[in-house]
Amino acid sequence: MMCYTFTVDATSIAWSDVELRGVAWVEEGRDVVFRVRLPGTGPAPERERIVICRWAEGLVLNVTIPSGVGGPPLTWNATFARRDDDRWSVNFDFAHAGEIRLTCAEVDVQPAP
To answer: Containing H/E element for 21?
Structure first.
């Protein structure tokens, strides 16, 4: 049985108030995958996405959750910009909580499994 997924252009998503639900290194550490939940009123599973950054490098993961604050960090914004060398510059801005940034060859956004 064949499994089909659809890919969404990362630049077409509003990245404010997106919950970071997890970070994983896959493909023997080559790719970085972010599990996120988009804002909205629909059922939570329908708002779950994975952001796959293929051939990732230069990862800076600097997110601080203050003492006494619970829950996943929320984005202030995120940007996905194509560079002159045809790679992607990815930046998740968590306002006062920090940021995640990296460079990768491809960005793929899919519904979370």
So the answer is: strand 19-26
Q: Which two tokens stand for residue 74?
A: 């929320």
Contact between 32 and 24 under an 8 Å Cβ cutoff? The reply is: yes
Tell me which DSSP letter residue 86 carries: S
Report the length, in residues, of the chain: 113
- pLDDT by residue (tens digit) across 33-63? 999 999 988 888 889 999 999 999 999 999 9
- For 56-77, write each residue's pLDDT tens digit: 999 999 999 888 888 899 999 9
Task: Give the sign of the dihedral formed by CA 79, CA 89, CA 64, CA 113.
Answer: positive
Domain map (residue ranges) of the chain: 10-111
Query: How far is the C-alpha of 74 from the C-alpha of 7, rounded, in Å?
Result: 23
**CA dihedral for 93, 17, 110, 83, sign (positive or negative):** negative
Among the listed residues 50, 41, 44, 64, the one whose alpha carbon sits nearest the alpha carbon of residue 10: 50
What is the Cα–Cα distance from 55 to 42, expressed in whole angstroms?
33
